[in-house]
Design goal:
The chain is an alpha+beta fold and 198 residues long. The chain is 54% helix and 21% strand.
């Protein structure tokens, strides 16, 4: 205790049931602050994933389908599972194959970043399918950007042509220029002489 007072620190009992009890000299306020910071950091790093739901109709239009499916892809990219629900009304219940077709189309569209966790099934007047993020697809996704730099290759190719075309472009420009400046180049005189015999 006297040592702790001398150091202007706290004497904290860390193992009360040990024989003899174990104590530690520390700055207790700082210890509490660092523990709170660690807890806050671990909470921040913990990704909160949930289940999102997107509802479709059997007679959905192309524009609405694309918009909703883009939203589904965004949810999957954020790490959420997505429950796709097809809502049937009235006589639509007699054509479940229409809902199955839409669910298959959604699964195919987002297949690069998702996998089907629960296959389509009827639940009352609804048909439900659950999609989960595909970690392998998200790992493959960065490869796409690598491919896009390759796609930027055209611009290097565009950069290369300026190097080689100057040689090709210059003669063409020289020929044209010399054609107008006829007296300076014999190449322009040759076409003139050809025209004279003809």
């Amino acid at each position: 205790m006297s040592i702790a007072r001398t150091l202007d620190m706290d004497l904290v009992e860390v193992a009360a049931e040990a024989n003899p009890p174990v104590c530690r000299i520390m700055d207790y306020n700082r210890f509490k602050y660092e523990a709170a910071q660690r807890a806050k950091e671990s909470r921040r790093k913990a990704t909160s994933t949930g289940i999102k739901e997107m509802k479709y109709r059997p007679k959905i239009g192309v524009g609405d389908f694309d918009t909703k499916t883009r939203q589904v892809a965004r949810f999957l990219g954020e790490g959420h599972k997505v429950k796709i629900t097809i809502m049937f009304r009235g006589r639509e219940m007699s054509h479940p194959e229409l809902g199955k077709k839409i669910l298959d189309q959604v699964a195919e569209t987002v297949g690069a970043v998702a996998k089907v966790e629960a296959a389509p099934k009827l639940d009352g007047r609804n048909m439900i399918m659950v999609l989960a993020p595909d970690r392998r697809g998200q790992v493959r996704k960065p490869a796409g950007p690598d491919a896009s730099p390759a796609g930027n290759g055209p611009s290097p190719a565009a950069a290369a042509p300026p190097d080689s075309p100057p040689a090709t472009a210059n003669p063409a420009v020289d020929t044209t220029a010399t054609g107008s400046a006829g007296p300076s180049t014999g190449a322009s005189e040759t076409p003139v002489s050809t025209n004279q015999p003809t």
